[in-house]
Design goal:
Blueprint (H helix, E strand, L loop, with lengths): L1 H10 L6 H14 L13 H9 L15 H14 L1 E2 H8 L3 H9 L6 E3 L2 E4 L13 H7 L6 H9 L2 E6 L2 E3 L1 H6 L4 H8 L7
Antiparallel strand pairs: 1-3, 2-3, 4-5
Helix pairs in contact: 2-4, 5-6, 7-10
Keywords: DNA-binding
Organism: Saccharopolyspora cebuensis
Protein name: DNA-binding protein
Length: 194
């Protein structure tokens, strides 16, 4: 399994050993709550009825159903593994590391504190700079959303952003020279009901 996992990680462009990746996955899994044997137990009868009326299935997972938390754990592990340290971000942008922390404080870059210090998601960088239009998009993003939600938004094609008649992610939109205001408007709706 180790050779197969290392092959998958290499194809995905992740520079991490299989053991390091599995450690990241274990850490991410520990942060999630344990699966609830009966999700309905958290709700009153009237709440259960209201949730069922809008189509929410509160039945426990069957023995053949996969755990929906697995994708989130894997995505969180990849996000953490590909994130840049303050020093790496400073080197990429050609600035002092104190400027990176200053930009985080001003929300001109985003990151989270980890055991080793600040980690900055890689999606917000190009090879030698910050993503064009990034500041406008970050200013519009809700403050209460976790890094994984923001990363998924920035890297998932959006119907309202098209390049050559194909939906593109906000990151791709900005890289193609798209209007940051359009991406920012979409970003402002993260976490709101559709």
């Amino acid at each position: 399994m180790t050779a197969a996992l290392e092959s998958v990680l290499a194809r995905a462009g992740l520079r991490v050993t299989a053991n390091e990746f599995l450690s990241l996955v274990e850490d991410a899994a520990k942060k999630l709550t344990s699966p609830q044997a009966d999700p309905a137990a958290h709700f009153s009868d009237s709440e259960q009825a209201a949730l069922a009326d809008v189509g929410l299935d509160l039945a426990p997972l069957g023995p053949s159903e996969g755990d929906p938390r697995a994708r989130t754990v894997a995505e969180q592990a990849v996000l953490r593994d590909t994130a840049l340290s303050v020093n790496q971000a400073a080197e990429r942008l050609g600035v002092d590391s104190s400027r990176i922390r200053h930009r985080i404080g001003e929300r001109r870059l985003i990151g989270w504190k980890d055991r080793g210090g600040w980690r900055l998601p890689a999606w917000q960088f190009t090879e030698h700079d910050a993503l064009p239009g990034l500041e406008a998009v970050l200013a519009a993003m809700p403050l209460d959303q976790p890094a994984l939600v923001l990363a998924n938004f920035m890297t998932t094609p959006q119907e309202d952003l098209e390049v050559e008649d194909h939906p593109v992610s906000p990151r791709e939109w900005l890289l193609a020279g798209g209007d940051p205001g359009r991406a920012a408007q979409l970003a402002s709706t993260i976490g709101t009901p559709a």
